[in-house]
Amino acid sequence: MAKVIFIESSNAEHCVEAEPGRTLMQIAVDNMVPGIYGECGGACSCATCHVYVDPEWQARLPARSSDEAFMLEGAQEPNEHSRLCCQVKMYEELDGLVLRIPLSQG
Question: Where is coiled-coil annotated (predicted)?
Fold first, then answer.
């Protein structure tokens, strides 16, 4: 099974198994990754699953939707690597994906 690495702002790493077809938010919540709350349940309406995608992985992800871009405008500390992990589904080619959790969610 594929793996995703979530890194907290303290640099604590959580390497979790990631079932293809599930969103990165579902994977984080199922594995109790600190800082990923998913309060809206994946409806792209709260930004509590905000992460920074490591630059080497950025081009491998689908582009942000307009809804995701709008929600990220209201997130704390967004940057060009920001994504809402409820909007990205896992697939085998993302094995080893590295996501950093913002300090504001730590």
Answer: none
Q: Are 17 and 1 in contact (CB under 8 A)?
A: yes
| The CATH number of the domain covering residues in 2-105 | 3.10.20.30
- Residue by residue, pLDDT tens for the chain (106 residues) are 899 999 999 999 999 999 999 999 999 999 999 999 999 999 999 999 999 999 999 999 999 999 999 999 999 999 999 999 999 999 999 999 999 999 988 7
Would the pTM count as exceeding 0.85?
Answer: yes
